[in-house]
Amino acid sequence: MIVNKEEITSWEKIYRLKFMNSLSGYKGVHLIGTCSNEGIENLGIFSSVMHISSNPARIGFIMRPLTVSRDTYKNILQTGCFTINHIHKSFLKNAHYTSANFKSTQSEFKECGLSEEYLNNFSAPFVGESNVKIALKMIEDVEIKESKCRLIVGEVQFVHINKEYIEQDGQLDFEKADNICVTGLNQYSIVKKYKNYPYARTQEIPNFKKTKLPDNIVFDEESQSFNANILPYGSNIGAPSIKLNNLSLWKSRGISSYKSVLKSKVDKIKDEYSVLVDEYNTNDLLYNAKYDFEPIIGEVYHLYEKEDKDENFLSLIHPKTWRKKHLGSFKINSEKVWIKISDKDV
User: Fold this and answer.
1) In the chain, N or C terminus with fewer CB closer than 10 Å?
2) Are 184 and 279 contained in the same domain?
3) By the 8 A CB rule, do 134 and 119 touch?
């Protein structure tokens, strides 16, 4: 199928918009935050953010023709500052609706339920919900004459990012950050890593012209030679098969052993947990009982139940000297923990 220029031009406007916006493939999607001199915050969604240079650190984005009022552009001209905020799944819906045609006096932050955040005394607002936030100062405003679009170039002032998203080689893991990308105007996709190749150097380019040998040909890559005649085992199709030792018995013994060891550990943990629960319940009972004195460490106290059963009380009176319902005898230690003592020790 070939779609020519004339056919594209003849399409209905929105259909053509979606096709052409999708044609360049997956793109990053970001929220750009600005604030006017009057203090009105603005937030817009853009899929045209691009890397310009790493030294100096510069990022740009494309602004559509100024055929209508563009609050983002107006605010950047006024203040010279803007923020770029990555979008992740948790607030994608909020971010998408910032593209609605709000009035200049309305803040997309408030209308779309997003939090404005100010960092390091930077004058433009960040999106509080974003995982990756970039502060930029405009250094160049370039008109693309043919389309009347504008390339806004900003110099990075600082980046606010979770350290765990930065990989050892400096790249960012946007799958871990739950980032979103976009095709067209409104079709969003999740980011998923596929392959990581080393930095390309001419002396390390693989031999793409090399013909792959059949699987039954023995070729040693290191010596670049056919070495079937020196191998300690048969390598041709007719050679005896190589049989591995039967590990079933060893595995079954290992399974039985590890299950026994782990069960013993689990049982020990259960017993310790049961003792801990009993100690907790004892102390909860004692500290909620009624008494008008400060207990002395090492002294034996007796817990009784009141006749109306609404409340327990603590006393030094021995249970054999009266007929109150005795709930147990206890001592308190230096760590303020109550310990139950057996009846024979009372």
Assistant:
1) N
2) no
3) no
